[in-house]
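A quick aside before the break. I want you to see a complete sequence-to-structure record at least once, exactly as it would be stored in a machine-readable document. Don't worry about memorizing anything.
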Amino acid sequence: MTETDREKLRTTFGEDAERYDRCRPGYPAEMFDDLAILAGIAPQSRVLEIGCGTGQATLPLAQRGCAIVAVELSPDMAAIARQHLAAFSGTQVVVSTFEDWPLPAAGFDLVLSATAFHWIDPQIRTSKAADALRSGGTLAVISTHHIAGGTEPFFAEVQECYERFDPTTPPGLRLQASTNVPTDSTEIDDSRRFGPVQFRRYEWEHTYSTQEYIDLLLTYSGHRAMPPTSQRGLLNCIANLIDTGYGGRITKRYMTQLATARRAGRGNRCLPRRTEAP
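That is the input. The structure line, written in tokens, reads:
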């Protein structure tokens, strides 16, 4: 992804913040239990969240009593996040890019980015996250992957819609099994600011009606950025396939990945190695 593409696409999420909040799934509860153990999270732990969106990952941490500063690019997304977090006085939502946001003097116990880290300038994100942490604090990066499973025949057939209306679609594209989705700690390892990266993975499914699935697709940057005529054609094709071929409901299988790494002591550098949960 070029810098121009990243700058353009990362602004699309705030164009319809209400739809994003309504349609985007959250994260498995088990993941937050593991994160609390891996990062030593307890009430009053200081957390910096990068790209909080409408608060899908922020709220579970606020419910654990964390003191959170959440940085969000979109004013509309931030406004909805504030509504969800209104009951938690220890949570603050700031409208800013992470690249431009000035770090406070005191380090955080946890820097978290849930399905947003890849939108931050790669020349800045890892080093600034390390600068934001206290010595021994944890960087946690959450990513979401659509994997093989659920209504598998639909996801094979729907590629014809994408190939027809989106010329960038590789022919014959198929979903991967979770075991074929690679783990990659290269960027964190190369920074030499962190210890070993640990990975945890969580697989789960969600069932959508035709309209719910179309609404979900309209929260994805690639779909939102399509030319209007192509977008309408694609979404109509997908809706027709679900209605006529699958009784108006399909199930999507997700894999949520949590990557965590401890910050090295100030002035020190680690020689990291990657570890993965069985």
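Two observations worth writing down. The first helix runs from residue 3 to 9. Residues 3-149+176-206+254-267 form a domain with the Rossmann fold fold (CATH 3.40.50.150). We'll return to this after the break.
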